[in-house]
Amino acid sequence: WAVLGAARVELGRRLADPASYPRAENALRTSLKLRPERNAAALRGLAALANARRDFVAARKWGEAARKLEPKRWTTYPLLIEACAGLGDHEAVGRMLDRLTKLRSDPAVMAHTAAVYRDRGWREDAAAQLADAAAAAVDPAERAAYVERAGQLAWERGDLRDALWHFQEAVRLDPDQRAAQAGQGRVLAALGRTTEALSAYRVALEKQPRPEYALELGELYASVGMPEAAKVQYDVLRERVRKAAAHGVDEDLVLGRFEADHGDPRAAVRRLRAEWEQHPSTEVADALGWALHRAGEHEEALDFAVRATEGERGGGVRSALYAFHRGMIERALAEYGAARRHLREAMQLNPHFSPLGAREARAALARLGEPPVEAGADIS
User: Fold this and answer.
1) 285 found inside a domain
2) Buried b vs exposed e over 41-63: b needs ≥16 C-beta within 10 Å?
3) What's the domain range around 193?
């Protein structure tokens, strides 16, 4: 029963099918009922299920219970790393990673290490870990997953050619690598190959209907002057979020991001405040700050934007989107020097980070112009 439950969790993740999760929970709880004592396998399965549902509090609880029973079972630690990251507990993430790497060194552990390094802003170290993981992986699907993550890193640093190669290679290794197909859509759109980008997104969304893919596809349609097609994708997003909620999955983060830009910003603020109370992570801080800005609450917005972008506040990720959000908030507060600095940072990190956002960032920088020269300053 524990193995069956864990398999159903993985199936739900791979297919973006939340209907698998209630069946997974039933199997895992049946396992615990049949063996209520020392059933670490079922506890790990419940931790994985809670992570998949974005219930990081429960994931940490179940993961810690499994770790207490089997402290040297390495497979527990990636579950705890994911849960602690979702809760914004970066110190705990570091402790769990240290314990994981002492227990095992293989491609899967390298990939988990890369994810932690990426969140700390150590992009080159993360890329090296993923390259080693892909080289050491034996199974083509496993290798494809690591190559796809390397593509994501290349995309985040604005290296379109490298990102596209990685995404295409991931799909070659595993034709079911939907994240890589969505990644191709992202890069092809940035390269101006819009028809190919739309096709790649449609394939990814058809086979793995994640709401964030629908949001990205909708924004791509909007960026090329197709508002009705964009609205169709936004409706798909809402439907996927409703379906996910019916099966216990929390998609308030992506829904809040959507509402902030394309719906009701105040509704986004309410939704994301609740999300922050439960899961005070860097990505939620960024989303809440942006929603507050869109709702006209610029002062409070800046505090969350700082949390998302300052390493000492937990925001170690080098994200063009986060820098853009902070710059726009600072511009609204007439902090023009800081706004100019962060908007430039966004464009330096990845000038193609969003088909709509990058365009807005360029326009804002043009309006800000160059900093004024103080009287008497040496401009030679």
Assistant:
1) yes
2) bbbbbbbbbbbbbbbbebbbbbb
3) 122-207
